[in-house]
Design a protein that fits this description.
Blueprint: E1 6-12, H1 19-26, E2 32-34, E3 49-53, H2 59-71, E4 75-80, H3 84-93, E5 96-99, E6 103-106, H4 112-115, H5 118-121, H6 124-130, E7 136-141, E8 146-149, H7 157-162, E9 168-169, H8 172-179, H9 183-197, H10 207-223, H11 229-241, H12 250-256, H13 266-273, H14 276-284
Parallel strand pairs: 5-9
Antiparallel strand pairs: 1-3, 1-4, 2-3, 4-7, 5-6, 7-8
Length: about 300
């Protein structure tokens, strides 16, 4: 016999002024748990992430949650074999996250924008552990208005044991990946960086065109397999301050495509190792039209 499944909505009440009050008033029979229960933020129920049982037959509740989802990034949908009293504390444990050699912070996975970035930010073991309590998890990506489902890989006992007593630890690169999951944030960050660090190089270029150049920079970097946001920032900086076509150079291409070097380190290693003559040739042969060239096969912004 198949194990029973339960359906839930995870609601970030901090995105709506009266969500908790309205939930209690309109749906007094609804079953829910605050993920802040048992934490120092336990008293903040009105701004807490609430795990709400959302059985298919409770149509009015689901319709209300869908309206909140459309109004602000605040709702994700979960299927799990676990009952509400069991699943809620399991998710609460996953709020704890370690950064900077032991500093504990809250991992705000109840924000759909963070949740959808987790699968690509976590390493394989972290991902298997984190999503172990659920069989399906989906959310609406707010900018594209598309729903995405997370690919859930079965966790092993070793995965569970690894984080049984210690929280997930995120590197700076993983935190950047989460911060820039919404690609528009990355484009905006690149443009702001140009404005702050090389105003003379972008003088006379309208902001809309700068955004197009940022899109091209991210696209071209991704074409070399460089997906680390910090490295993509560096790629964009070289495009703007050295040459828009700096990656036309054969030695540069070899560095950027080197499979033996981690993708996040290729640009910094290239800068350290490229001979002066190569830099001089890059400047002599610069093509300004390359400022808006995407990677082959790319036609615009990608998720």
């Amino acid at each position: 016999m198949d194990n029973p499944t339960h359906t839930y909505a995870l609601l970030d009440c901090s995105q709506h002024d009266h969500a908790w009050r309205e939930l209690s008033a309109r749906f007094p029979d609804a079953q829910w748990r605050s993920l802040f229960d048992g934490t120092p933020e336990e008293h903040l129920t009105a701004a807490a992430p609430l795990l709400i049982a959302a059985p298919r037959e409770h149509e009015a509740l689901i319709k209300w949650l869908a309206q909140l989802e459309q109004a602000a990034p605040s709702v994700s949908w979960i299927t799990s074999p676990y009952t509400l009293p069991v699943l809620a504390p399991m998710l609460t444990r996953r709020l704890n996250c370690e950064i900077d050699d032991g500093q504990l912070v809250v991992l705000r996975f109840y924000d759909p924008r963070i949740l959808l970035g987790l699968p690509s930010a976590l390493d394989a073991q972290q991902k298997r552990y984190f999503f172990a309590p659920v069989s399906a998890w989906s959310a609406l990506e707010p900018r594209r208005r598309q729903r995405y489902s997370i690919d859930i890989a079965p966790a092993t006992p070793a995965d569970i044991a690894r984080y049984a007593f210690a929280p997930i630890s995120l590197t700076l690169a993983q935190r950047d990946q989460l911060m820039y999951f919404d690609i528009e944030n990355l484009y905006e960050s690149i443009v702001r960086h140009w404005e702050e660090t090389c105003p003379d190089d972008i003088a006379g270029i309208k902001r809309g065109m700068l955004r197009e150049a940022a899109i091209a920079a991210v696209s071209r970097a991704s074409g070399y397999g460089i997906t680390d946001p910090s490295a993509q920032h560096l790629f964009a900086g070289l495009m703007m301050t050295v040459s828009p076509s700096f990656d036309d150079n054969a030695m540069v291409k070899a560095h950027l495509s080197n499979p033996d070097v981690p993708q996040a380190e290729r640009l910094s290693r290239m800068i350290a190792q490229l001979p002066e003559q190569a830099w001089e040739q890059i400047v002599r042969t610069k093509r300004y039209d390359a400022l808006f060239e995407l990677a082959p096969g790319q036609t615009g912004a990608q998720l």
